Amino acid sequence: MDKITGNASQNGNGFNLSANSQVMFGKLQKANQISFTLNAAANGTSGLILAQDDDGKNGVKISFEPSSNRIAAYVMNGGSEDLANTYPLSGILGTTYNVTAFVSNDVCVVYVNNQLSFSNRVYDVINKKWSIFSSSAVTFSNINIKNP
Question: Which residues does the UniProt record annotate as the domain BT1760-like C-terminal (predicted)?
Fold first, then answer.
């Protein structure tokens, strides 16, 4: 863990995040596998940010948005966010998500509950950081990163 913004507490290999919080981790490699379980809030947004600069204003945000029944990707540039891609969370009951994200070079595929996959282009990943975030109180558990 490199930096906490907002309020987050570590619990083993997981974090409890309060509203509008973020935990930034170390630099990504050429190939990465990030996995975690997200217990999301029904009315908030939460997920991970890839290819993030040290200041946290640039990157690609993968956001779980249960109230909109979707997962979405946003390109973050200088603090603004532009919607790039969405996919419905149809068929996934509740707000607990088992997530595995594979990032290789500039391709990211996120698998959710072994039921759906969500792919995006993520440029300039190598030596950039990654984060977990939430707009409301959530729990990320079983966080694991591998660099195969």
Answer: 5-143
